[in-house]
Specification:
The chain is mainly α. The protein contains 16 helices and two strands. Strand 1 and strand 2 form a beta hairpin.
């Protein structure tokens, strides 16, 4: 099925509007810590107290940047006719705090919805427009993702940024265009500044580039009888090492705009490392019920995680995900472009390793 550019633009616009409204309208946000941290970040920027732009070990910079800017705008229009920009999303009975919370979530919803559309477009380059639009629709309506997008928190934002970076590196593997590599690294840096577990993108980038190198070595091995090792080393430098270094360099650029890094970079990095190590060794103390037992001091067995994943995955997304993999593997004739095998399996690897992490 071929979609005209006008139809694609209409469908993308519709997905964006629906995604934004679903995520903005009368949100119910239990966690309030990032609301207060965003306000503190905005106050720190406004007063020139750059050290205070570091609020948490997460570190949450991109989330606070978006939330702080949105709350700053809300404070400017509050109790004026222009407040209608935000007031339509808050519940009629919302308290002043509730109105501010709804306003802050609106900024995050705007960015996340934009990333969903961007990821849909990137997927269309790797597969086809029909597949990409279906994936975009699932991202818009998936209840688990949607729920995390309706709270003032980092999880939905960081997962959106991580997917964007991963799709861009796959496009680089597919097409070899440097702009995809550069933007992948740039977005990865933003994801890590949102939440440290986005460091996952570093080994994934290495895996994607390694697959590209293996394919290139396989395709050219027979034609390089003389000087084969020299050729292989040159390919390794040009295909794996140099792009990897450039990607890492691009991922550092967002750190240069974080004011906290201007005044006390060593202390901030040390505190982030210590906080990350603490959470790796000891997770949040939460009582969990699983298989008839309560787990308070100790983690539940490893079977808790796949069971929880299946429980939180909707029937539609889980079923269609399995069917999509089977269709790719078993359907011999395809009317439209599908992802090439290395890209397809790299997408599967992203899902598997992301969930495992």
């Amino acid at each position: 099925m071929t979609l005209s550019p006008r139809i694609r633009a209409i469908l993308l616009a519709a997905l964006f509007v629906v995604s934004f409204v679903l995520r903005s309208y009368q949100p119910v946000s239990r966690p309030a810590q990032w609301y207060y941290r965003s306000k503190a970040y905005d106050e720190a920027v406004t007063t020139g107290n750059l050290e205070a732009t570091y609020q948490s070990r997460h570190p949450g910079f991109i989330g606070m940047l978006i939330g702080g800017a949105t709350l700053h705008l809300f404070d400017l229009v509050k109790d004026t006719p222009a407040e209608v920009i935000f007031s339509w999303a808050a519940a009629p009975t919302a308290t002043p705090f509730g109105r501010g919370m709804a306003a802050g979530i609106m900024g995050l919803a705007l960015v996340i919805s934009g990333l969903i559309i961007l990821n849909t477009v990137l997927l269309s380059r790797l597969t086809n427009w029909l597949t990409a639009l279906i994936a975009g629709g699932l991202m818009v309506f998936s209840p688990f993702y949607l729920t995390h997008s309706r709270v003032f928190h980092l999880d939905a934002l960081v997962s959106s940024l991580m997917l964007t970076s991963a799709l861009l590196i796959l496009l680089y593997v597919e097409e070899g265009k440097w702009r995809y590599l550069l933007f992948s690294g740039l977005v990865a840096g933003m994801a890590i500044l949102t939440k440290v577990p986005a460091l996952f993108l570093l080994p994934y980038m290495g895996l994607a580039l390694l697959v590209r190198l293996i394919v290139r070595l396989r395709d050219g091995w027979s034609t390089h009888g003389d000087g084969r090792m020299r050729w292989a080393l040159g390919e390794s430098w040009q295909t794996l090492v140099l792009p990897g270094l450039i990607w890492v360099g691009m991922s550092l650029i967002p750190w240069t705009v974080w004011p906290a890094m201007w005044v006390r970079p060593i202390i901030v990095l040390q505190d982030m490392f210590a906080g990350t190590l603490q959470h790796v060794e000891e997770s949040h103390v939460i009582t969990r019920f699983f298989a008839g037992n309560l787990y308070t001091e100790h983690s539940p067995p490893v079977t808790f995680y796949p069971a929880t994943l299946i429980y939180n995955t909707t029937f539609v997304s889980l079923t269609l995900g399995v069917l999509a993999i089977l269709q790719y593997l078993l359907w011999p004739k395809r009317a439209e472009k599908t992802a090439h095998p290395p890209i397809f399996w790299l997408l599967i690897a992203y899902i598997v390793f992301f969930v495992t992490q």
